[in-house]
């Protein structure tokens, strides 16, 4: 019996009994009876088929070979198969063992989730296959290094830098590994990473800048002393991505002083003080005016002046 005849598709393997490498079942003119059996059930007796399974048939090449063929092999076909030969002298048997391999397949994985920073997170990934697949995890950004976890990946006190796309991979070396993905969003309160003062002469456009990182995205408010500022003819507030810009048209002496930027989301808020001051006062500033920051900020300033005109 030839291995390929018992393996019509990828995923099945013949393992022989003793001695190793047993294969086709050969007969000669001294043989009076021959049969194929599986778990003591007769499949073929001579040329007569006893099995009702339409996938099973005989392959005979010449008068010497008596091979059994199973098409579309299934896991239920796994087991021991015996070729039994009866001669005038004594019966002989040849055994082989069919192991059916099944590619790894992930059938259940955690859904995308959104959690607060500091929470404990468990991601699950369940897979089937023969042999049993090995499951590995990795966070694709930024390093994509393997993580400690198998079917369940536990993340204790998750931090914002652990947010991203997680890959679960199941592999048993039968076929290409199966992969599924879980997106984890980590929410955290705002952190103001930059607050820029402005050194502006009287009569010119003054610009104060406040930049904050947060998930969900921060909302901004501006205050002068305890009074909240809104868009008016004298002031204009713009939000570009994670940066808020307060523009003061035609600065006067009364406009100089301390301003407060407030960045907030549902998890909390953070405040930062910035200053609008007259050139030459020598105030130590934490940043630079908007005109020198970037091209897009410069365009915003010009646009505001243009529309005021």
UniProtKB/TrEMBL annotation:
Give the family this protein belongs to, as stated in its UniProt record: Belongs to the immunoglobulin superfamily. IgLON family.
Keywords associated with the record:
Disulfide bond, Glycoprotein, Immunoglobulin domain, Membrane, Repeat, Signal, Transmembrane, Transmembrane helix
Q: Is Signal one of the keywords? A: yes
Spell out where the chain crosses the membrane.
Answer: 285-307
Top-level taxonomic group? Eukaryota
Q: Kindly give the Gene3D superfamilies that the UniProt entry links to this protein.
A: Immunoglobulins
Q: Return the SMART domains for the record.
A: IG (SM00409), IGc2 (SM00408)
Keyword Transmembrane helix found:
yes
Organism (species): Oryzias javanicus (Javanese ricefish)
Q: Which CDD domains match?
A: Ig (cd00096)
Q: What is this protein called?
A: Ig-like domain-containing protein
**Matches recorded under InterPro entries:** Ig-like_dom, Ig-like_dom_sf, Ig-like_fold, Ig_sub, Ig_sub2, IgLON_domain
- Please list the residue ranges annotated as the Ig-like domain: 25-94, 103-183, 189-275
Give the SUPFAM superfamilies listed for this entry. Immunoglobulin
